[in-house]
Amino acid sequence: MSIDLWPLIVYTMIVLLVVGTMLGLSSVLGQKRRDRATNEPYESGIVSVGDAHFRISVHFYLTAILFIIFDLEAVFLFTWAIAVREAGWLGFAEALIFILILLAGLVYLYKTGALDWRTDRQRGRQVALKSPGGVVNRKPINHEDSGETAL
Hey, what CATH topology would domain 62-144 get? Predict the structure, then answer.
């Protein structure tokens, strides 16, 4: 069994020639002048202010990871939907189990508070806004007047 590799070799040589030509032309024809602001970063013509290194809450990373996980699972469901006729009822049962596992994971994340972005201060404000009946009021209730204690 022989495989002709010459088309792959020719393609690779053409790609390397194009990349080399582009790099060579940009270095020859590119700007040679160096100003004071040449190496300064900017975005949309606006010079950056402040430091780029700042702390971000772990909730942002957690949300990003959860998005990636659920996005990949959606891709699996799309591929199942394409082959739904070939998969038959067994494939449907497998997809149903997959969705139930996803829902169980989502319920677990909700119960553990992984989807709650509020800070401790915001949670305290929410507790102060809820009345004993569970109705949310616009201004905090003074529980000292009613003799009840806030949880």
Answer: Methane Monooxygenase Hydroxylase; Chain G, domain 1 (1.20.58)
